[in-house]
Amino acid sequence: MRNRQLTMPRAVLAVGLGALLAVTTTSLPAQAAGTAEAPARSAAEASQPKLTNLSHLDFLLDDVPLLPGVAGHTTYRAAEEPVARAPWVYADRQADGSFHRVGGGPITDAARGWYAQGAYDADDISRAAVVYLRDWKQNGTATSRTSAYELLRSLTYLQTADGPNAGNVVLWQQHDGTLNPSAIPKELPDPSDSAESFWLARTVWALGEGYAGFRAADPAFAAFLADRMHLALTALGRQSLAQYPQTQVANGVPGWLIVGSAGATAEAVLGLSAYVAAQPADTTARTALAHYAEGIAKLQSGGIGQWPFGALLPEANSPTFWHAWAGMQPAALTSAATVLGDASLQRAASTDLAQFTAQLLATGGPDNGWTPTPADRTQIAYGVDSRLEGLIAASDATGAAGLAALAGAQGAWYFGANRAGAPAYDPATGVCVDGIAGDGTVNHNCGAESVIHTQLSMLALDAHPAIARAATSLTRTTATVGLTVAEAETGTTTGAVTVVTPPSAWTGSANWSGGAYLQAGNGSTVTIPLPAGHPAARILPIADLGPGGSGTTSWTAAVGRLTLPLGRTDNVRPGEQGIAPSPIFLLPQTLPVPVPAQATSVTARVSGTARLDAVLVQPIVSHLGLAGTSSLDVYVNATKLPVPQKLDASGPVTVTRYDSAGRQVGRAQTSGGHAVVWVQPGGFTTVSPR
User: Fold this and answer.
1) Residues 538, 517: Cα–Cα separation, whole Å
2) Within a 13 Å sphere around the CA of 159, how many CA atoms are in the beta-carbon half?
3) Looking at the chain, which terminus has fewer C-beta neighbours within 10 angstroms, N or C?
């Protein structure tokens, strides 16, 4: 992700602020021959306003010279067509509402227009190509075919064609076509084509969808893309794929993910799925697809009531870190399951979507970081699109109507159901925002990554009119009753307890919640007040399970004059650090006994030594409420038993129950009032106007 307003914990993702460079828009390339015809639209689709609008993405595109004589870099018909196209990475909004296209980092050579990073990058070129390929396929847009063709030519110019780094990809390129393999600040790998990378994974995504798109329309170009796909697979074969089936010491995670990231690998899997579907006899690509999909699925963690609640974690080196950006794992596993005929991959995707994503939405939506507490509450289109595409793809593949309902709720983010309470996208102009902070502050810039993922979402919504109608009718959030946090350092203590504030809250794979923790000795107690007004809830204490602790901690809750035993947690879990960046291991542990709504505090009694960080409070039934020209309430069950939920409806409603895979198991209508409905174990119930 390359949104400049965000500070991410991975240094490799850090980007400079960039300098302002005004450039004029350029004309679109001429229409290519053999354009696909748009599929016929139903009457309902024809009457529904189209959400996809590529105008702003078109504005970001610019001509880029394909410089001859650069060792290892050429592309399709480079001599005959020496200019391709690429999107500028950023676009800064001006006071009059217009935008200036901007490169990455400060300007280092004003005469040549060079940036410390560059004007264009392979990350955005590849994903922009996917947008135009999908628009061409879905809508038959002639200019989108041409843009896809030019973007793929530009992308493959960045791919190193020979030498020891063959198949890898240079990330940055200047406006005049000059490659910048070593950007400032340094990004890993450095040089950027010296090893596999996120941008190599995204190149595979674009090559796969590009081959599928051009296979019939332009066989010669498709053959070139297939050759470049195999060049990429050869590079991956000597890097991450060479590790299959080895697992890493840290929690037995797969060692063959691209750059150790399920997020990066998922984007490659999307491309491999498209490629193998179009070329099923290619055993090299099919094997790579199967191995990578298997690795992604192995990072599923937790379950009903157990953090992270069935999520597919993104990073192999941290079982305590989830982020919404680069979150295409559910969509990727769904596509791989379909192509490979592997039902286990679909089960993994559906579990993430029906259980974790439902909880995520009720907690406020796709935050940039749960580490493990919801820490970075910024939300961006990349994260929203990742959830939305996964939900829609899995709903299509399985027929699980509950996932379609959640897709409508997630898609509503673009139209006002977000923390800003304002639209994040304008279908009339194609302009989006670069992000919404946890306090509702909006970044009104609209760079390449943001508009790319916004348009991927709009294409998916346009292809699913019922979900689009739901999303556009839900324009404000009325309730989010989800995970909350009680900090250990806010508690009252007895015995040997000290507050420790480390130099940084970030441990390398998690955050100390609130930036501090309690060092608690044997026999000490800590009484932590629970958030006011909390519902009946599960309690998930967070302590460092690394080598600094010993023994166990017993937990009780104060309920009026009663003391309710809740269970026991570990203070240490023996094991090697392995590939984890730090020995600190901040894994939430679920206590077996939940607390009632009347509980005012929980008390920890330490046997041994403990580093207590915080307590996660997970409602037995979480609640998301959305409204607008329609309304939707979603109730999410955190237990393995059916749970009743009292409604406060003002009129007749339809109540639909879904199981833990998002499949509908019941539907009824009530007259409203204070009716009681049931929520399935690990599943959710929706309530909408009759």
Assistant:
1) 21
2) 32
3) C
Residues 265-324: tens digit of each pLDDT: 999 999 999 999 999 999 999 999 999 999 999 999 999 999 999 999 999 999 999 999
Length of the chain, in residues: 690
Between CA 13 and CA 19, with CA 18 as vertex, the angle to 5 degrees is: 175
Q: Which helix (H) or strand (E) segment is 611 a member of? A: strand 599-619
Residues 450, 413: Cα–Cα separation, whole Å? 14
Q: Say how far apart CA 682 and CA 366 lie, in whole Å.
A: 19
Distance, CA of 92 to chain centre: 24
Residue 21: C-alpha distances to residues 26, 77, 120, 444 (Å): 15, 31, 13, 17
Neighbour tally for 195: CB within 10 Å: 16
The Cα–Cα gap between 512 and 28 comes to 50
Structure tokens at 360: 């995520």
Residue 331 near residue 267 (C-beta atoms within 8 A):
no
Burial 597-632 (b: 16+ CB within 10 A, else e): eebebbbbbbebbbbbbbbbbbbbbbbbbbbbebbb
Q: What is the dihedral of CA 94, 96, 101, 104, to 10 degrees?
A: 10
Which residues, including other chains, have CB under 8 Å from residue 347's CB and lie 6 or more apart?
A: 661
- Whether the pLDDT of residue 10 is over 50: the answer is no
Q: How would residue 34 be classed by pLDDT, with cut points 50, 70 and 90?
A: very low
Helix (H, G, I), strand (E, B) or coil at 232: helix
Transcribe 315-382 into DSSP letters: BTT-TT-B-STT--HHHHHHHHHHHHT-HHHHHHHHHIIIIIHHHHHHTTS--SEESSSEEE--B-HH
Q: Is the pTM of this model over 0.90?
A: yes
- Kindly report, residue by residue over 80-129, the tens digit of the pLDDT: 999 999 999 999 999 999 999 999 999 999 999 999 999 999 999 999 99
The DSSP 8-state label assigned to residue 142 in this structure reads: H
What does the DSSP 8-state code read for residue 503? S
Q: Which of 135, 129, 63, 158 has the alpha carbon at shortest distance from 101? A: 63
Q: In Å, how far are 88, 98, 364 from 91, measured between CA atoms?
A: 8, 9, 27
CA dihedral 559, 564, 568, 571 (to 10 degrees): 40
* CA–CA separation, 507 and 489 (whole Å): 18
